[in-house]
Amino acid sequence: MTLGFEVHQRERAVGADVAKLFVDIPVANVSDCMNRMAAGGADVTMLNNDLATKMIGPALTVRTRPGDNLLVHKALSMIEPGDVLVIDAGGDLTNAIIGEIMVTAAVAKGLAGLVVYGAVRDAAALRAGSLPVFARGVTHRGPYKDGPGEVNVPINLGGMIIEPGDLVLGDADGVVSVPYGSVTEIHAAAAKKLAAEEISIAKALSGERDDSWVDKKLVSRGYTAPEASA
Ligand SMILES: O=C([O-])CC(=O)C(=O)O
Ligand SMILES: [Mg+2]
C-alpha cells in the first residue's frame, strides 16, 4: 500500500430507514444530546440560499491533500443514493476542492449532501441548488488533481471525528455527525429534546416561562443581590 493513496469500501453505514427518523429534528437538538462533544466548527456553514435546507445521510468520507481533489473524483464513482460526501481538505481555503460540474455528477448519482472542510467554487450554482452544501469558504482558484488522498477513512472536521457510514446531519446551524453505533440512542434523546423545546417555546410565547432557576444558580455561584434602596 502506498501511504496516502487508499480507497476503502465502507464496512457499515446507517440505513435510510434510520436516517429518515431525523428528518424533523434540528441539528441543535441532536448536538445537545451528545454532551457538547461534537461539532464541525462554526466556520463550516451552509451555502444554500434556502435556510430551511436539511441534510441527512451516511458519510462517504474523503481525506485529501489540501487543495487537491483527485481522490474526491474517485469518491464520486463510489456514491450510493442517499450518501453525504464529507471531505476533509485540512480546512485550507487556497484552492476549491469541488464545484458545479462535480456536484452535478454527484447529484445525478443520488448524493444527499456535501460537506467540505475547505473551499468550494461555482458558489452561485451551489447556493441556488437543492443539494445541501456546507463548506468553510469559497474561492475561484481551482484544485490540483495529483493526490494524495484517501477514501472511506476516519476524518477530522474541525475537531469532530467522522467515520465512514456515520450519520451526518446538517442545517442552518451547521454539521453534526452521529457515530454509527449511537444513532438509535441519540435519536430517542433528540426527539425528547425537541418535544421539550416545543413546550419551552410555547411558554416563552405565552409568558409562562419559569426562569426562577437563574437567581438560584446565581446565589449558588456566590452572587449577592444589591440591597433594595429605601
Ligand atoms: O474543476 C474542478 O475540479 C472543480 C470545479 O470547478 C467543478 O467541479 O465545476
Ligand atoms: Mg467549475
Automatic annotation (TrEMBL):
Cited CDD domains: RraA_family
Keyword Magnesium: yes
Reactions catalysed: oxaloacetate + H(+) = pyruvate + CO2; 4-hydroxy-4-methyl-2-oxoglutarate = 2 pyruvate
Protein name: Putative 4-hydroxy-4-methyl-2-oxoglutarate aldolase
Residues the record lists as binding Mg(2+): 122
Family statement drawn from the similarity comment of this UniProt entry: Belongs to the class II aldolase/RraA-like family.
Organism: Rhodococcoides kyotonense
Annotated Gene3D superfamilies: Ribonuclease E inhibitor RraA/RraA-like
Domain of life: Bacteria
Keywords: Magnesium, Metal-binding
Keyword ATP-binding: no
Annotated signal peptide: none
Pfam entry (one): RraA-like
Subunit annotation: Homotrimer.
Gene Ontology molecular function terms on file: 4-hydroxy-4-methyl-2-oxoglutarate aldolase activity; metal ion binding; oxaloacetate decarboxylase activity
InterPro entries registered for this protein in UniProt: RraA/RraA-like (IPR005493), RraA/RraA-like_sf (IPR036704)
Enzyme Commission code(s) on record: 4.1.1.112, 4.1.3.17
Cofactor needs: a divalent metal cation; Mg(2+)
Chain sites annotated for binding substrate: 99-102, 121
Entry function: Catalyzes the aldol cleavage of 4-hydroxy-4-methyl-2-oxoglutarate (HMG) into 2 molecules of pyruvate. Also contains a secondary oxaloacetate (OAA) decarboxylase activity due to the common pyruvate enolate transition state formed following C-C bond cleavage in the retro-aldol and decarboxylation reactions.
SUPFAM superfamilies assigned: RraA-like
